[in-house]
Specification:
Layout: H1 2-30, H2 34-40, E1 44-47, H3 62-70, H4 88-91, E2 96-101, E3 104-109, E4 115-120, E5 136-142, E6 145-151, E7 156-157, E8 164-165, E9 170-178, E10 185-193, E11 202-211
Parallel strand pairs: 4-5
Antiparallel strand pairs: 1-11, 2-3, 3-4, 5-6, 6-9, 7-8, 9-10, 10-11
Length: 226
């Protein structure tokens, strides 16, 4: 009887200790790079591309090319102040900032007030789960780089001029710091995979400079301004 009583007292204690250790390891995994996270969360990041525009040579399939050529510019959902979602939210090369909260990373873009949530070490969704404009993003640390995989994107446009995206599109983004200049740069490598519209995965690299005293302003979209 004494042994059983003693075991009942010890087992919960061991379980609590294991749960505590597991939680601490999980927290360490989520924020495996506190210094990198601190740098990313400092201020606003501004694209080095002047004017926030760029051109890309997307490797479109015949079907993707046909969809692109038939896209009507006046049907652009942004003209109705509807956020177009990823990856277009990023291809605006908008001002953006980061915040790290519990087991998520929030990425905000000033253009169209887009807010993304990245679930650190989250579980993937079922294939038939709802697709949304920004999709479902899962993040992880790879050394000093933050890697974000996005699935479950709703069909739409990749760029404002109508490069198409299907609901099978996936994104892989890698955020890492360049120290090649006196001012540290944040580099973002984005790989788009969309077998319906892209003949092969398309990768682009963009660089952003930190503006520690800036803050994002409301986009305040008005249809009459377009």
């Amino acid at each position: 009887t004494t042994r059983r009583s003693g075991s009942r007292q010890i087992i919960p204690s061991r379980r609590l200790m294991l749960l505590t250790v597991s939680f601490m390891l999980f927290q360490q995994a989520v924020f495996a790079n506190p210094e990198v996270a601190r740098k990313m969360a400092a201020g606003v990041w501004r694209s080095l591309v002047i004017g926030g525009t760029n051109t890309y040579d997307f490797p479109l399939t015949p079907g993707g090319q046909e969809r692109y050529e038939s896209f009507l510019l006046d049907q652009d959902p942004a003209l109705r102040c509807e956020p177009p979602g990823m990856p277009r939210a990023f291809y605006y090369l908008s001002l953006m900032d980061f915040s790290f909260q519990d087991d998520t990373v929030r990425i905000r873009y000033e253009t169209m007030d887009v807010v993304r949530t990245v679930h650190m070490y989250g579980m993937p969704l079922a294939p038939d789960a709802t697709h949304t404009p920004d999709g479902y993003s899962v993040g992880r640390w790879d050394g000093d780089a933050l890697v974000v995989d996005t699935t479950h994107l709703a069909a739409g446009e990749t760029t404002r001029d109508g490069i198409p995206k299907s609901d099978a599109m996936t994104l892989t983004e890698t955020f890492f710091f360049e120290d090649s200049r006196e001012d540290t740069l944040l580099s973002v490598t984005t790989t788009i995979t969309d077998p319906e519209n892209f003949a092969e995965p398309f990768t682009s690299v963009h660089q952003f400079e930190n503006e520690p005293d800036w803050e994002l302003l409301p986009f305040d979209c008005h249809q009459t301004e377009y």
